């Protein structure tokens, strides 16, 4: 029996031979396997035999088993690392993934090859070699199936996480939008979140990143929403993956400065460690700089060092009056470079202060008469003109004064109705406001029948 007849016979025991005459003439041919080592495994392999002339003049036979073109999100380098591991333990055949990347996808074929000398080649041995090649081909196909399932599962999990994060982010942004006023702040925060989100995606895509520092300066008078926005920023940073926890640790000078040398650094570092994964919010941060008269600079240096050593793990927001914060940023060369984004919190207008007041009424289930409402507006306008007003704390104080005065106006009544307990009338306006409110019948508290 000639060597060519031996090859045809061996291929026939594995599957169907397409080019019998060509192979019998010592030319390349194809065969389609119908019998596989793993009967329940992948099928559809394409077989080929190639006659190779070596430099020595001797002839060799190359057995090749391949797949159709396949697609995967996995990198070819990753798959060929798996192939290298298999090739170290394979007796005859070698497997390889050949193809190219297509914008994130890999298009490739699986090739399993084995080279044999034609001299003394026996049919039983050739059948064993072909079976070994098919076994390795099936393992490679199963590996691709596993890795594709894993990638699809991970993509589904990422999508689910993204949907959840987007839902949470929309909730937080809705809370931000629900805040009275602060239009420039809302615009800046949205821009900041968008910039950080795109930077994260560019990094994942292997693109250069021009990412702004996440650390912020909040400039504005007390009661203009700085602390509230800082808490929202912490939650938003967590939602976009910038922080692992997103909690906010709020401190001031008293929590950071110690009474003797060395104590400040220890206290400040301990507080920074509590803020890891979240936001360290330092209110009235300018009070740390008192021209070197105490250990304020020690606290600043400790914070800057901690920020450098824990990049990506903590965000610091410093807040205070505008002019004082400018001086604070100039007090240490490391501050300006790390806090390159400043957000200005303007004072509330009288209209915005009234919106805050109305929200307090709704939140605490109070009603107010038109006359009492006009008195509140006039009082807030007076405070605003005297530059006493402009912040939410003042509105809360006004509201608390009204609630206290309303309670006193009802103190002599028994069997109070819900309507009486809810309604704030002109009689709840403190005399100290001096608003000269007119009293009408509608301002009288609702009476209980029989009174």
From TrEMBL:
Provide the AAA+ ATPase domain boundaries.
Answer: 212-349
Residues in a coiled coil are none
Q: Which InterPro entries match?
A: AAA+_ATPase, AAA_lid_6, ATPase_AAA_core, CbxX/CfxQ, CbxX/CfxQ_RuBisCO_ESX, P-loop_NTPase
Q: Which CDD domains match?
A: AAA (cd00009)
Keyword vocabulary terms for this entry: ATP-binding, Nucleotide-binding
Signal sequence coordinates: none
- Family annotation (Pfam families): AAA, AAA_lid_6
Quote one Gene Ontology molecular function term: ATP hydrolysis activity
* Stated family: Belongs to the CbxX/CfxQ family.
Q: Supply the name of the protein.
A: Unannotated protein
